[in-house]
Write a structure and sequence with these properties.
The complex is a heterodimer of chains A (409) and B (305). By secondary structure, chain A is an alpha/beta fold. Chain A is built from 14 helices and 15 strands. Chain A has a seven-stranded mixed beta sheet, sandwiched between helices. A five-stranded parallel beta sheet of chain A has the order 2-1-3-4-5, with helices on both faces. A three-stranded antiparallel beta sheet of chain A has the order 11-12-13, covered by helices on one side.
Chain lengths: 409, 305
Amino acid sequence: MLRFTAPPSRSRRQTKAQLRSSLIPLLLLATIGLTLSCAPQQRNAEDRATIKIGFFGDLSGPTFNFGQSAMNGVLMAADEINQAGGINGRKIDIVIEDDKGSPEAAAQVAGKLISNDKVVALIGAGASGNSLAAAPKAQSAQIPLIAPSSTNPAVTQAGDYIFRACFIDAFQGEVMAKFAAGTLKAKKAAIMLDFNSPYSRGLTEYFELSFAKLDGQIVIKQSYSQGDADYRGQLSAIKAAEPEVVYIPGYYGDVGLIAKQARQLGLTVPLLGADGWDAPELWELGGDSLNGSYISNHYSADDPSETIQKFARAYRQRYSNLTPDAHAALAYDALRFLAEAIQKAGTTEGPKLRDALAETKNFMGVTGIISMDRDRNAVKPAVILELQDRKYIYQETIQPETSPAVQSH
Amino acid sequence: MDTFVQQLINGLTIGAIYALIALGYTMVYGILRLINFAHGDIYMVGAFVGYFLSFQLGFAAGPSLVGLSVVLVGSMIAAALVGMAIERFAYRPIRKYARMTTLITAIGVSLLIENLFVAKLGAAPRAFPQLLREQSYTLFGNAAISKSQILIFAVSVLLTLLLQWVIFKTKVGTAMRAVSFNLNSAKLMGINTDFIISFTFALGSALAAAAGVLTAQYNPQIDPLMGIITGLKAFVAAVLGGIGNIPGAVLGGLLIGIAETFVVGYGQNVGVPTTFRDAVAFAILILVLLFRPTGLLGSTVQEKV
């Protein structure tokens, strides 16, 4: 498919033009300004100024719902923090960029946020592939980056300035394998994966590994590419292999159609998925075909816990009755523990902020209690949800046993 | 065996879609010797007209056969008008220039339509409303055929027969065949060639729009760039069958559909990844151009439309 890289941003072009046209007056002003101002005053002014934090995600593109939800979560957290007096008296200012769901654009907007907008930290992106592309920019500029929902282990391996607010795929794949073998008592599973997505390939690997350990057997593995629209060839082959469950670690746009086509072909066994399914569009595409499927996710808006209900109420009120999905909740948590780290560090300097973030321990987030492990991954529980008539019904919570082992790719 | 039958059904379904689109490529080529690269986008326009008609006329609320027929015919008429407009304003003014000029214009028109839709409607995929109550029937033991597949077979066979009738049994069809033999001689014989060319674009575009609505019903997700790859594969189908040849376009479409599905369904047993599904059509194109440039039926049939 065609991919468009983002055109050079308008603001940058404007700045250049303005610079050129007003070069001489500017130089004059600068000379006067420098002679008049004295150093301590300037320092004070900077301290009182707002704290700029960059957010980028896919606000458009094939999984635009991820970016939109995350942006909602970040903006809500920023307003709450500002209303409570800000961080050490300084307000937060969120600068937003759209990466259109493309890794190239993600790297580009991350670079722009760092060098043009001078943000002190970054929150983004959604999909693992995009966060992987943006991470080197943040690492080399020593600006901490928190990926709210990128679950592929490689993301935080890009460097010690890269963090995440969610668990990793090693754990998520294991959780679903346990649920399939334990609760569903499945012995034979099929896998249908998105061939070009690091997220999907990672989950497949860990699911296979854990399912084999539990004496399960993968009877067939089929792949597709995002946007194929017709998956009947693979699904017919899967049906012939007679699995008891089908694991589909993909994104909602494909999954909705896959579910529909599977049911049409008479493949009636439960479909299993992961957090990539979680978006309202899933139901538009899949409808009733999704009933009886299960996904692993970061949290459930239906969880009766007081923290979650308070968050969900506030979110619904703010965003005209929209239910906060996991991407909104994770981004909300990401900004809040970033704010806590800035407060603890007492500065927005990259290295000190990084250290404070790495020490995050038992932070009470909406998506669970967050502690950073030595690889800067959040260690936290996962939930299993059942899909039924446009609702996610909470099934069980699976706790992390140990700090998940990190495997390099 | 069940699985083989199942894959055959799957392949024939998408093959029927390719065939409907390939008919438009082949007819326009037969008459103007022009490869109308904007044809794949007409297929997309058809799907979008169907989408908006369903909501405007309230058929999106629930499946109904009346709704489906109205949406199908409505989008065919709309696409026919779009096709005629493209011919009138983009191709007719430059018809007298070298063929390369028209070909490049066709690519330009294609990009214009795609980006106009992206700009106006956004690139995000939309879910197409369900107009047909979905149901599956079992055949040969364990193979399933769904209502939307039956619909695709029925409509494409009906439209192909109708086209065959128009071309061989009607006055306007005779004129089309005359124009395809020699445009200038046809003009000298008193045939209004401008009208015939316009009519050909209308027919081809209506078939593409039917394919668009049927696909949207089958795989209910549409976006402004959906016509690119499908259009290219249908073009390959037309070349495979012998461009300018009507039965050839149908045969080519069905073969490409089956080849693609078999690559997906059986390729992994022999180490071919499913991502080769789009590559197989173009591999076939290269082979055809190398060994039989006139296509499967191209050289044997004299009569071209």
